[in-house]
Amino acid sequence: MTTSAQTKPQQMQPKPGEPAVATPDVADALSRPARSLWRDAWSRLLHNKAAVAGAIVILFFMFVAIFAPVLAPHNPLELNSGKGFLPPMWVERSSTGKAGVPEFILGTDNLGRDVLSRVIYGARVSMVVGFIPTIIIVFIGVSMGLVAGYWGGATDNLLMRLTDIVYAFPDLLFFIIVMTALRATALGQFLNGLFLLFVALALVNWVGVARLVRGQVLTLKERDFVLASRAVGASHFRIMVRHILPNSLSVIIVAMAFLIPGAIITEAILGYLGLGLRPSTDPTDIFSPVGGRCCSKARPPSTTSRGFCWRRLSRWRWSSSRSISSATACATRLIRACANKAAN
Amino acid sequence: MTRYIFRRLLQAIPTLIGVSILSFILVNAAPGDPVTMRTFGDTRMTEEARQILRRQLGLDQHPIVQYFVWMTGLSVQRGDQVAMMTRPGKPCGYVGGIDVTVCDSGGGILRGDLGISLDTKQPVWDRIVERMAATLELGIVSLALSLLIGVPLGVLSAVKHGSIFDNLVRFFAVVFRAVPIFWMGLLLIFVFSVMLGWLPTGGRQTVSLTQEFDLGDRLRHLILPASVLAFGGIAGFSRIMRTETLEVLHTDYIRTAQAKGLSPGNVWFVHAFRNALIPLMTVMGPAVVGVLGGAVVVETIFAWPGMGRLTVNAAFQQDYPVVLGAGMFFAVLTIVGYMLSDIFYAAVDPRVRFD
Question: How many Å apart are CA A15 and CA A24, to the nearest integer?
Fold first, then answer.
């Protein structure tokens, strides 16, 4: 027993019934480096088959998203004239009377763009839309919920009335109103409309997280460990961030698990309604802020960089009478610039 | 209880004011205005004509004034214009202190008037009522479907937990939650309407000259949209019922019921089921709201002439009064839905008491 403990101290287990600590030597041999909370959680995660399977799927999609240029057989924006509406390669004869070709594994869309490549590049959008807004939502929701729950009183009341207002809209209706209203503004043009999508998702979803966290904080702040840390003189901020927040992490993580797929599906639905990202049309420049770039390329040679266009874009909002004329001016330039670029 | 309801109704007032302000800001944040949008590219329109149109619609005023007019139906003009503005049924008065003429045109949200649609010149209220019947039909049928299918599935999978049936139910619940509603809709249209030709692709009834009411035809049109809308509900309800039933099945009184020799059916459906139903009440409010939201998409896919489609189209065409009116209408429905769900919760569970 003692010999084995000396040779393999890490695997040493005390037998039930025996005193666990006999001599200082054995006590040293028995103890192993303490495992942190996160390590513990990690090892439990690895033992959960469903979790591992899910993680593999997510990692696969991340891999596809990151290496899209390597994996995609074609450029997703390249038009193949005369090859539109091709069925997948294994279809002998589709309803359009065309046969699938091995060149386009999943066939082509109405403009002759390769569907598989478009799906692969689409993973990028889905991944970005799934994760980034969720981080923003959790940040806003957690801080609001913490403050509301911890301070209570008027702050709580005000923040909760704010959440009531957002709750009073059916989610999708709210997204649709936000997207239609702000789509043509500078905000909606930024990063192909991706930024507006983040804003809309955050605006609607922080409410749920804030309420959840607030509920947790309300019960946690009455607990003895909070009282104890207050007694030793911890600041309010420290109590909130170091004591209450870690204890409500489980709720936040569960909420995140619902937010990420929710955001991805919402983006898909908005895209279907024609309110998602603006389609990029430039084959040399996939998934990039087309509005900004093309516009800044179309500037008169004398003005410098993007500033010209941004100023113009932001002015649309305020002068409604001139908005459409300047909008069309900018749009025609944009199209001309894109056409020139494509021609070159 | 009465006090609780009264307090909730009082709380709803600031919420609704907030909703009105928020939706007004959003709608006004859109660049351009309805007049420019409707007359764009029309060579006969001069800038003066557009200005006149804007003045008629009140779009030339400051947004805050517009909001005030929309809420109260009182229009405000600078200077003393009582003589010019007063018409039969539209009394005006001059407020000397701030030099404005206030006219009462007899509308405003506060008096239950949602204004007039820019596109059809109908009162917004009429358009909403006209469309609401279709949305209610779709919503009620799909909610009934999801309850009638989701609840028994959940109970059965809890009773037989760990079985193949249970795993299948859970698997499909995850799949239905993961699939975007529009994709499901398109897939079903493809299978049942295009390939098999059994059901119509969209609309509420077959278009004919007489537009007679034909129940069979209506039902055939209803099947696809209602089931697409119900999938999410089925998944949600079956999950909740499964968890709740499992929890109830492990309580002492169920063990007592089993110990005294009641038949399993009696135990599950009389003792367990009724108690597992209670938490369902709390999700009914959100479920109703979810159906309303989902209807926005389903109505677009299936060309269903309901509220959702009305709102989406109005938002695209900048028909401000309709968007705002529908937004307020949805907000009221949502608030009432949540409130009813809370009240029912207290009604079925005597342990729940509101102060």
Answer: 17
Which residues have CB under 8 Å from A325's CB, separation 6+?
none
CA distance B307 to B312: 9
Please give, rounded to a whole number of angstroms, the shortest distance from the CA of B163 to a CA of chain A.
17
How far apart are alpha carbons B32 and B44 in whole angstroms? 19
Element (H, E) at B134: helix B124-159
Instruction: Strand B74-78: give its sheet, edge to edge.
Output: B74-78, B100-104, B92-95
Residues in chain A: 344
CA gyration radius for chain A?
28
Q: What tokens were used for B168? A: 């299948």
Could you tell me which residues come within 8 angstroms of residue A224 by beta carbon, excluding any fewer than 6 positions away? Answer: none
Cβ proximity of B228 and B189 under 8 Å = no
* ipTM score above 0.90: no
Nearest CA in chain B to A318: B31
- Tell me whether B335 touches chain A (CB under 8 Å): yes
Q: Whole-model pTM?
A: 0.75
Contact residues, B window 10-29, toward A, CB-based 8 Å cutoff: 11, 14-16, 18-19, 22-23, 26-29
pLDDT in tens, chain B (355 residues): 788 888 888 888 888 888 888 888 888 877 777 777 777 777 787 888 888 888 777 777 778 878 887 888 777 777 666 666 666 666 777 777 777 777 777 777 777 777 788 888 888 888 888 888 888 888 889 989 988 998 888 888 888 888 888 888 888 888 887 788 888 888 888 888 888 878 887 777 777 777 777 777 788 888 888 888 888 888 888 888 888 888 888 888 888 888 888 888 888 777 777 777 777 877 887 788 778 778 888 888 888 888 888 888 888 888 888 888 888 888 888 888 888 888 877 777 777 666 5
Enter the DSSP assignment of A34: P
A-chain residues near B40 (CB < 8 A): 324
Q: Who's near A56: CB < 8 A, 6+ residues apart?
A: none
